[in-house]
Batch of 2 targets.
Target 1
Amino acid sequence: MAVIAVPWDDKQTGAVHRICTATGLRVDLAAQRLIIANAVAAVVFLAIGGLFALLIALTRWQTIHLLPAIWFYRSITAHGFDMLVAWIVFFEVAGLYFGSTVLLNARLVKPRLGWIAFALMLLGALMVNGIVLAGKADVMFTAYVPLKAHPLFYLGLVLFAVGALIAVGLFFATIVIAKVERRYQGSLPLVVYGLVTAGVLATYTLISGALTFVPALFWSLGWQASFDPGYYRNLFWSFGHPAQQVNLAAMVAIWYSLAAITTGASPLNEKFSRLAFILYLLFINLGSVHHLLVDPGLSFTYKALNTSYAMYLAVLGSLMHAFSIPAAIEVSLRRRGYTQGLLGWLRKAPWREPGFSALVISMFLFGWMGGVTGVTIGTEQLNMAIHNTLRVPGHFHATVVSGTTLAFMGMTYYLIPLIFRRELRLKRLASWQPYVFGAGMSLVTIGMIASGIQGVSRRHWDITFTQAVFPASIPGTVQLTLAIFAIGALIAIAGGMMYIAVVLSSILSRRVHEPKAATLVIGPVDMTPHEHDEEDKRLQPKGTFVLVLAFLLFFATYYFANWWLLGNQSWIVR
Amino acid sequence: MEADRDHRDEDERLPPGQVLFDEIFLFFMLSLVISFILYNVWGLLDLLRTPALVP
């Protein structure tokens, strides 16, 4: 079918849109081009970061220990930037443009600014990768002062942050103009509300990034005599950790989208879900202090209030989503007649639909592995035993990779027909991909956490500390747990390659395809929002309630097991 | 004119909680202020109060 390009109602804007044949949504063509550009850049950096992941995993596997020390640190630096910043932020910018235009029936204001933002981000990302590969910035992702990189490393980070900040500004401007032009009525849709949360958190993150890396650039150039490591760490972690909170908010918004697309689920209570996002907005950035729990100079009150009180309010937000989304799915599936027993709806769920399996695996791994370990790490006393061990990367590989990356991968499959207007190819591969990636990442996380519990350092190339003055008391069993981690990484990388194969074979197809349904493998799903009848006992989310209780039991067991471990080990501060 | 009135009427019917939740720029400001004060400013003041080590 030819492109249906329709001039916007208001001729002054000059915007042109098409009507999506599957959803009936209006797609601003200027926004569509920017979404495609940012999504493609995201996938390219995911592939580059994945290559470094392979090299790192084969080095961490003690039997192979592939890379020499210098290339290990170099690869860690590039991997950290490409995965935690480039892949994620490019994809989030695509998501922000999608949410503010397509979901609001609106046009993107000032698309030219969007291209300037894209160019700055791309230039910055290429500069960082280039200077790291040139061997001028072996400082790892955190680039802790007094480690000093080449000025182009910091300049690249600043350019990337400025570009992303322009994109976030464009997102908010588009929402304001959409309201002024009456493109939508009433409140913002819940998914857009989640993206607004991500946008607000991104603003703080990116301003902090500029405040961190501009002085670091001056210091690297010799214009500034010194940069206090304490100040640097404070500023860096108001960039480094909130960047992952942006992922969290965007990921939860995508969870709600995938639940709606694949099962027709609509939130049980919008106020409840929106309140959870507001808890993120107000409190989640304060959890960054958990990176500073062993830092000298910071008061106990500062550490405890931020990590053990404020952060728990944000955790409450996550627990609210963790109930709300599966409950909405359960009610939707029960409404379709899957009312048998507590979990009959779960057995009948569309497990072949890649968006559904990506959603469930992402939620499970994020919550059961990432969330539980995160709260444990954020407890000051427990942190003494966990800090700087491989348990910390074990936690964030469960959140950012198993959770966010898998959710973004699942969403990509739906953007291909809806935005790229190409048929999704290799559907069978796409159906299996979330399982392969999720299984691999489960092993990665378990292997890292088990190694960390035994004392393996998170950053050091030589975990045995061969030439150290003091002997490292690392037991031989870490050979096994590190092998589990590395084998898991190989499986996850295979899952990542499956994703890239599906995406490339689909988007490189020359034939334009107009989808008839939003789903990919299963038949069309009714996405009309339903009024929830709380009196109808057959539709009550009893199964989700049981799952939530099981989760809380696991949470409590893991948390208190760590206190038990703390009391049973010698006090070595690593 | 009529459309304007309908739009206003619809906004007026919204429950107060929803009106509050819709104030995204209020939460934007609160988020930035809370984060900068409780995380950055408080942390940097703690560091400033720490006496420097004199060799």
Target 2
Amino acid sequence: MASRPLRATALVSVLLIFTSLLAACGSSSSGSGGGVVNLTFWSFNQQITDQADAFNKTHPNIHVTALKEPSGFGQYYPKVLSAIKAGNAPDVALIEYQYVPTFVSRGALVDISQYIPQSVRQQFDPAAIGLETFGNSLYGLPQDTGPEGLFYNAKVFAQAGITAPPTSWTEYAADAVKIHALGPNYYITSFSPTNTGWFQALMWQAGAIWFTTSGNSWVVNINSAQAQQVAGFWDNLIKQGLVDTATADGDFQSGWNNALDKGTIASWISAVWGQGVVKGDAADQKGNWAVAPMPQWTAGNNDSAFWGGSGISVIAGTKHAKEAAEFVQWYLTDSTSLNIGVQQIGWYPSNLAARQQALTTPDPYFAGSTPGGQIVDKTFASVNIPSGWAFPPDLDAVTNFEGNDFNTAITNNLTLVSQLPNIQNQVITDLQSQGITAKAGN
Amino acid sequence: MATVPARQSRAHQASGLIGANTWAPKNLLGLLFLVIITIYFLTPLYWLAINATKNNTDLFSSFGLWIAHFNIAQNLADLFSHQDGIYLRWIENTVLYAVFGGLASTFVSVMAGYALSKYVFRGRRLVFGLVLGAALVPQITLALPIYLLESKYGIANTYWAVLLPSILNPLGVYLAQVYASSSIPNELISAARVDGASEFRIFWSIALPILMPGMVTIFLFQFVAIWNNFLLPLLVLSDPKLFPVNLGLATWNFDPAAHELIYNLIVTGSFLAVLPLIVMFLFLQRFWRSGLTFGSVTG
């Protein structure tokens, strides 16, 4: 092992020789003549080049090159961070909300508050703006959000004798019993212990805010009373065998796709973008599915939470922060760009005006409760997102601890509740080891 | 090339002998073992071939190891038209990286291996030791340093960013050294020198033909390595127009915002992307076999 750096150096020096030999034939870097500012924009959405073309047409002094990058886990974000280190980073990039604090804590994002006036910020969903704001700093504008609801197979629900979707978690648990009574393969939902973002959204909906900031310190509340209540609710369903915990049946796994199509998994708590997944996976169930608000902890509320959703940020190291911020603002407020985003990419936009326009077309696939189909997005339009949730400054660590500990719990018939203190302690230790001030909130 | 037919016929004789023993009862167990191993290795490929013919729903709802609705024509049409037919561009890029990278790498490896084998110079053992050590360094650990270096010299996100590192193959240099030592008699080189041939002429006209089977092995190694390399292109390329096919297909993977699922295109695209490798192996396998055993007698 000791000689490894030496060997790497040897290889690298050979590479250097090649590089200098071939520097002459290296392909030409894009020329930036005539005072035009060149910007690079990374995203993993489709059709971003159409949006960039529209921008370039109306902005003669700025030229944006939009590049669609691989989105897989362990691909996109490490790539952006490596590019920052290499001095090759894009000027503007899509960063999902859950990664914003991780990037901020590594100094990877530019504070654009001086370029984006309050009047512009007010055009967006305040819950989403909140996820981009830290103190007085603004680290991006929100592109799309993922408010959650309950997708359910109304035909299977009816077969189980359930006439209306559950409005409370108590009803949800009762319905879980009825659906499992249809047959040993029938479940109200799958429960994957490693689906960490999904579980965090369930916490968020209940007001169990895992992470908040207080001054310069992070407050970690993974083991709060509300958190124990939510985890205990699922412990109860798991113990009775009313939810499907088989690994192959976790969300997006092949067994789950198959079960949705057959109707044996009868519902899915998912974000607004989940409609595309349901339609694609359960094509044979066309007309049977419907969407309802999430089951509630407090009667009469319409609480939800975000699962997923992205913002557009200006990346550290850019030489053109002002122009980059101008592009970000145009990208998320211009009607041409928003139209492409909503109609072709499939955003549920954070821009409130664009969101109103998006709520028009009924979808015949979702005809389970409404003949002719529901206007799916409308169900998600009036939800309340409990305030105060922040994502952690080291998301990958939290994902690891939560996924591993919950997985251990499921395999060894332990409760999720019993894992919460452990997860909390691991997270706090991890943050402190990185020099981030963090303390327990309970 | 002159040595190839001889080697081949020897290989035929050898396999004929093994074949004669295959049906003896005591070898049935061995045969069974080979059959099981073969099934084990071919099942994923079989799965890929079968599922390339399915639409997105059948992919999950039908039995995985048998055909459902035969949708291959539609899949192919969609594959080559999705995002303005960028798939073909990705295939072209992969071919370019693998063919040119493989050829250049083979040539450099053979030159270096030949020199290390036949010339005595100060530091030869040190250089060979370094090459041997470098062969043990997983390429994956070098991806980030390579990327940082390329960024510094402004060739990140160009074809060169993938091609240049692909030319280096320490294992290839090592193999070439072993091949050259075991197959080119020093007397042959001395004789050529006496006849007045230049060093380059000796390498080009005498050594290279003898080394050809070994070169094919080195080429195949590197060709496959480049074809399958994911991490390096992921880091050093950001323009989708430069992506190799594996990286390109990764950009089609689940995009939460997109209201469409194109797993069927990814599966069909993956199947097409492995076909050239299979064809390549079928054509070059006789070299591959003889190349693998090349240095094993004296090396």
